[in-house]
């Protein structure tokens, strides 16, 4: 296996992943889902991410999405499949990805040699992804690769995201963190989403959040106080989780090689800067409040 510079796979993921996830903040996704009859934002999220499984029930979504309140999931799944089939949802999602990337990056970037190169590199990395114990990755890996380079890149980014995400859930389970404890401890690193946004989008109540904070304090992972702040032990645990995730996710990047990883990271960062400047991510989703 190719030896990579320290944390090269994490840096590449951090550049590539937002170019997949920006679709979930995009008004284009809401518009496309509305056209097929799915207007509730939570229903749209569950449907677009779970459609690769086929018409699954709430249990599969709760298990694989991990940090959502099961009550919120059950409110929308499997009922959403009565509104639109998984194939209809997948087609709408791809149209939204197309519109979103064209709007955020511009037509010149979408048609550029750099985009075609990024797609080739990202797809090459996915050649070494493995489906074992990675349900979200495996389901998406069965989908066809779009022909247009920017959509092929988005597809590859989706595969790389879910491959790492499935591994990350295994690391969280090994660390004995439940869904809300995972969210609280991530927020306490200073890199997580805004608390209000987490509660509204994940379906948890403030009392649930506070109870999770108290459990982490009892384990010595969180300081006392209104805002979640990690203790030394908590900081070490979160670092261990990220390192474990890196180990389980290194294969696609080792397959790409150090030079390929560096180039893909460079290209993705350039696209990400453009997308961020164009308003890809709402300010309300970030921060500590």
UniProtKB/TrEMBL annotation:
- Superkingdom of the source species: Bacteria
NCBIfam families xrefs: SCO6745_fam_HTH (NF047719)
Its recorded name reads SalK
The organism is: Streptomyces californicus
